[in-house]
Amino acid sequence: MKKLLKPLLWVLILAMSISLVIVFSSGGCRPAVSAGEEKPGSEEALRLSEKPDKELFDKYFCCISLNKSILLPHQEGWLSAVFKNKKNFIFKIEVLNLETSDFVERYATTASSEGSDNLNMEALEWVFLLRPGNYEYRIYVEDMLVAALPFEVISYFDYFFRNSGEEEAVPSDGVEEEAGGSPAGPKIAFTSDRDGNSEIYVMDSDGSNQVRLTDNDSNDINPHWSPDGGMIAFESYYHGMDYEIYVMDSDGSNPVRLTDTNSDDWCLSLSPDWSKIVFASQRDGNAEIYVMDYDGGSQARLTDNDSYDSNPSWSPDGSKIVFESFRDGNGEIYVMDFDGSNQTRLTNNNSDDSLPRWSPDGSKIAFESYSDGDDEIYVINSDGSNEMKLTDNDSWDGGYFWSPDGSRIAFMSERDGYSEIYVMESDGSNQLKLTDNDSRDSFSGWSPDGLKIVFESNCEIYVMDADGENKVRLTNNYSLDGGPCWSPR
């Protein structure tokens, strides 16, 4: 049945395309004005040749991005902006047709930061009124260009022919030899939308040799290194339809799609021996925990109930899986054997407990709990005994990571008004603030030797010593760079 529906769906899409071409063939921009027709030195010519002012951009913004770099006629373009601080300022938005050098008047608008940290707005709500082609989304502050975001509008015909022969793999461009493991030491994988949509990149631990590993129309996120550092698993928002799980060599070669469903497959965790991948999937109507071989084979459901089961994590010895479940009415922490048997509830609270992670020696499990009106970090023994609250204040504490030796925990906290990186002993003592600025610092991760911490700040990636000293900026561009992840070696 599925095989019959797919051709019928494409016939319907093609029919819709013909209708749109007929109805909107003349819609979109003003009459084309080529760049060659502009008088050299004229105000319009200078405006078209203007380059973004990075210094002015850094004064107001952390990053700006569009949700898609390629849009079909029925899709909407969303602008996401993260502001430098809570200043209230006005910025102007315009869309430039790169093929005609013509500004599209219907999309010109102004917006305000309104004293907030970020903004999400519908930038292109009527994409079908744009002719297929290449465009640029332009942001102005103080009448100066600060960012230019390219995007493409394609017809259903183009989409069909681009993807009709696609196999079970992510296209990847050629990458430099430095992309894989090297004598220089551990690498850092991360995501960046610097090329229009979120892709997986890798760089040396000092920020050098930044290389794009994936190159496609989907958003690729959440890279996970294999234990030997030779491969990277990740999630891809496949053609804007659903999240699927992929794996590739650490240099970006040999990408393989592991899941293929009409629903989201995400929250992956690798077994210590790299033989299995556990993940969450909604393929059966609600989120359940599944497991598969590292090559995508032998996919099996481990949990089966009417609630939400997610965020699975392998124990260090590979014998158990901890996860969160709402089967009891609110989020609780559960553990089960690697084959799904002996599912046991570890927490029993009236609040939501979530995001469990094993300590490196497998003796303890940390988690976040909304027990006192805000998120705090807790730890319990692996059998559920001796629950202990590690953080205790009136703000959010979360986003934690165990140090490689299990003696410390790095985490995020908003206790001082902004999200900052903190570190504490594994029993909650000696809580120390490592970052101190008016930006959002988040998503920290330890180096394999435990001497450094990588984190995200102002939509860029930084690294610092484990005591907060010697902060170094590793990335520097207009886009969102985030989700840094150290290779194991």
Return Rg in Å.
24 Å
The largest sheet is:
6 strands, mixed
Please, what is the average pLDDT?
Answer: 82
Estimate percent helicity: under 10%
Instruction: Tell me the overall shape.
Output: globular
CATH architecture of the largest domain: 6 Propeller
| Share in β-strands | 35-45%
Query: What is the terminal-to-terminal distance?
Result: 47 Å
- Total of domains: 2
List low-pLDDT spans. 1-5, 17-37, 165-183
Q: How large is the count of helical segments?
A: 4
CATH homologous superfamily caption of the largest domain: TolB, C-terminal domain
CATH classification, class level of the largest domain: Mainly Beta
Query: What's the CATH topology name of the largest domain?
Result: Neuraminidase
Tally the beta strands.
Answer: 37
Please state the structural category: mainly beta
